[in-house]
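fyi for ur records
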Amino acid sequence: MRDYLATQLAIAWPDLRIVAKAENGIEALRLADELTPDIVFLDIQMPGLTGLDVAARLATNEHGPHIVFVTAYDHHAVAAFEHAACDYLLKPVTAARLAQTVTRLRAAMQAKPAGEAATLRALLDQLGVAAVPKPAPLQWIRAAHGKETRLISIEDVLYFQSNDKYTSVFTLEGESLIRTPLRELRDGLDEQRFWQIHRSVIVAASAIAATHTDFRGRLMVRLKGREELLVVSRNYTDQFRQM
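which gave:
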């Protein structure tokens, strides 16, 4: 089904770029966190986490992706999909029905780049699937600094940067290391205070001194009290339009 859907999408929407294909719900959630796609096609029945479980977690993000469910559900459940903004595809997926979905997605992407989280949550409620609430934001971080283990207040953090095996925590005092992956760390941060600007970087909004565009056309962030410049990837530029 994955390969068939990818093949048909290449025909129906040639300029669409498929960034990943997942074999189960857990991998789907991980890839969605890492790659921040604009659109996610979710099979309802998946091992690990169902498509509805993955959607419930994605629904906690107001800037999450547009979601298309692939389902063999009965007419009662399909009626719920038809009353929501989220699109759905019934198995077996036909080329004609997929073409309709592509038309709807193109229109939705032009109207609003991010997904409709509130509508998705309403759909999940109707189907009896509760959105997963976020835990209270982190207040302290235990991090290795040389031979010491430091307790760093979240107020002192300038930015986080993902490395191969560790996540670097930067403060005015320097760099410390934690083993928590950036995608897991993000769930524990207050998204109003910490902005993801790249798949490997999360910045404290209060630490941003200025932004500018370099000669390559990339948006760059300069931090207070730091010399390095951080690149803002294209997926995260919208939050800087007010600056």
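The mean pLDDT is 83. thats all i got for now
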